[in-house]
TrEMBL record:
The chain crosses the membrane at residues 12-32, 38-56. GO terms for biological process: DNA damage response. Coiled coil: none annotated. This is YiaAB two helix domain-containing protein. It comes from the Bacteria. Residues 10-62 form the YiaAB two helix domain. It holds the Pfam family YiaAB. Keywords: Membrane, Transmembrane, Transmembrane helix. InterPro entries: YiaA-like, YiaAB. GO terms for cellular component: plasma membrane.
Length: 76
């Protein structure tokens, strides 16, 4: 049986902290004393930063797992 790397509580904590950080960022942008075009720019770039962070962590994880598989094949 495959053992999970993280507990349910840790996974929940990670998602809650992510959601709280996103909410705080967008609430800050909403209450920013700037024109709508500036707020829109910050909101779009914040969304892009969030998306690119997910993609980057997936690529780093996949590359690490590929290296581990390559090392395992080399041992056989």
């Amino acid at each position: 049986m495959l053992k999970k790397r993280n507990t349910a509580a840790f996974t929940f904590l990670a998602w809650i902290s992510f959601v709280a950080a996103c909410l705080a960022m967008y609430i800050g942008i909403y209450f920013l004393n700037e024109p709508l075009v500036v707020k829109g720019y910050y909101a779009v770039t914040a969304a892009f930063l969030i998306m690119s962070s997910f993609v980057l962590q997936k690529v780093v994880r996949d590359n690490y797992e590929d290296e581990e598989k390559t090392k395992q094949i080399g041992k056989d």
